[in-house]
Design brief:
Helices cover 37% and strands 22% of the residues. The chain is α+β, with helices and mostly antiparallel strands.
């Protein structure tokens, strides 16, 4: 005997809520940052927008590094950039370096974006669009934290309010 339509709807809503529960828990964790454990050590090979030179993780060795992968067409990227600038300024005295890695766009388009939304860090270009996927993310924006030795520590996928004090505290705690 099958349940009546009202009971069936109730069961379906309950199943949907149960399926969403783990996602909701992740979205509201203590700082919005997760441990980052990529299958392989991260590799960075990108072009510095200011100098045109190739940059690698070795160029940033010795200090903690926050890498944000973004694009000019990404609305959430645009929204979170001022908060990332504020976070980078707040943690600069502790040595944090901030890299904004553009995902696949031409330098001219990135420069136009920067005229509207300044970035207070090193801007790199990943014209091949390979870093996002190889570092384990599937969507923009994605933010990664590496320690002073270049080891992966934390990451977040999706927009965050980087001015929340608990995000800065989580980064500092994890880098100790």
């Amino acid at each position: 005997m099958s349940p009546d339509p009202a009971r069936r709807r109730l069961l379906l809503h309950g199943a949907a809520a149960a399926a969403l529960a783990p996602w909701q828990a992740r979205a509201t964790d203590d700082a919005g940052l997760q441990p980052w454990r990529p299958a392989r050590p991260p590799v960075l090979n990108a072009t510095d927008l200011a100098t045109g030179q190739r940059r690698t993780l070795a160029d940033f060795a010795g200090r903690p590094l926050l890498v944000n992968v973004w694009a000019t067409w990404c609305g959430p990227c645009r929204v979170e950039m001022p908060g990332l600038n504020a976070l980078a300024a707040r943690l600069a005295p502790q040595g944090l370096q901030f890299v904004a890695l553009n995902h696949g766009e031409m330098p001219e388009r990135v420069l136009q974006f920067l005229a509207e939304v300044p970035i207070h860090g090193t801007v790199l270009l990943d014209r091949s669009q390979t870093l996002l996927k190889t570092w384990g993310a599937q969507a923009l924006p994605a933010t990664f934290v590496l320690d002073t030795t270049g080891r992966p520590r934390l990451w977040a996928q999706g927009e965050r309010d980087w001015e929340r004090p608990e995000l800065a505290a989580k980064i500092l705690q994890d880098l100790r």
